[in-house]
Amino acid sequence: MIRSVAVIGVGAMGAPMAVNVHKAGFDLTVCDRNPAALAPFAKLGVTCVERAADCAGCDAVIVLVATPQQARAVVLGAEGLRAGLDGRTPMLVVMGTIAPETMRELAKELEPTGVGIVDAPVSGGPVKAQAGTLAIMMGGAADDVERLRPLMRAMGPAIFHCGPLGTGQATKIVNNLVGITTLMVAAEAYRIAGDNGIHLPDAIPVFEAGTGRNFFTAQAKDAPEAYSLWTATRADFDSIQSIVRKDIDLALAIGAGSGDLPFTKALRALLDGVGDETFETWRAVAAAPRQS
After folding, report:
1. Burial annotation 203-235 (CB, 10 A radius, 16+ → b, else e)
2. Which end of the chain, N or C, is surrounded by fewer C-beta atoms within 10 Å?
3. Closest C-alpha among 196, 48, 212 to residue 204
4. Has residue 4 got a pLDDT over 90?
5. What is the mean pLDDT of the chain?
6. How does pLDDT run across 66-117, given as a tens digit for each residue?
7. Residue pair 58/90 in contact by the 8 Å Cβ criterion
8. How far is CA 239 from CA 41, 133, 165, 212, 242, in A?
């Protein structure tokens, strides 16, 4: 049974997910190199550390960093999880989005240690992370997935076992390709709506019932709330754009044998030019009314 949990990386997604793990009653440790990210958890009485190696004593270790390079560093680096094992065998759960091949490389490196590994990337963004309603896509051995279900339920009710190690990541990458396309075009569509006198909370139910249905149409407040979080500062906007580009790069990498993919390539090229105009469009949607 999993009682103690470490979360490595408590940024925009990791922080609310860790809070929900804490609320669910697990003995929580959080790890981040940014003291400002750790401060709210220290106030909650949560154990705070700066080295991933110091998380090795927990039953499960969740990795929520943004890039494959960061994932390798926090697992295999000089101060990474492996360095602190000393015979202990926590369950490693990679919940950031990285390549399926990276998951298999991590598993191969950790095999001599006896540490089990599962991929469990999530979908829903910061809004659903805060609400504890994320969709979770898991790849790995069935026994490991079942052992982790109570922990996963602290972060979201929609838990899917997609298959062997790496399939959770592949599912998430394909999901992100569709989701990012919606993310980028929906902001422009909603701004056009507002500029034409359409009250967004009135229009959202129409989209939900029609062909415009997407992950922002379940509730009228979802789009303004999400774009507000992503435009709190220009740095926040630039950060999400960096992650979006990384995710499309992952889609192109795993789709290398799937033909030419002209629309995916065009989307990736378009993302290189995202700047002030898109930032202002997102801010306009963020400022839209959230209730009728």
Report:
1. bbeebeeeeeebbbbeebbbbbbbbbbbbeeee
2. N
3. 212
4. yes
5. 95
6. 888 999 999 999 999 999 999 999 999 999 999 999 999 999 999 999 999 9
7. yes
8. 23, 23, 28, 27, 5
Residue 163 pairs in a beta bridge with 139
Measured distance CA(189)–CA(131) in Å, rounded: 26
Catalytic amino acids? 172
CB 62 within 8 A of CB 6: yes
Query: Whole-prediction pTM value?
Result: 0.91
Give whole-number Cα distances, 211 to 196, 202, 204, 206, in Å: 20, 16, 11, 9
Task: Please return the burial class of 174, using the count of CB atoms within 10 Å of its CB with bins 0-12, 13-18 and 19+.
Answer: middle
Q: Which amino acid belongs to residue 220?
A: A
For residue 278, the tally of other CB atoms under 10 A from its CB is 18
Going from the C-alpha of 100 to that of each of 117, 172, 238, the distances in angstroms are 12, 10, 26
> Closest Cα to residue 82, out of 49, 117, 48?
117
Separation between Cα atoms, residue 6 and residue 30, nearest integer Å:
6
Q: How far apart are CA 263 and CA 251, in angstroms?
A: 12
pLDDT tens across 223-245, in order? 999 999 999 999 999 999 999 99
Give, in degrees to the nearest 5, the angle at Cα 274 between 13 and 101. Answer: 50
- Residues 96 and 121: beta-carbon distance below 8 Å: yes
Confidence of residue 26 (pLDDT cuts 50, 70, 90): very high
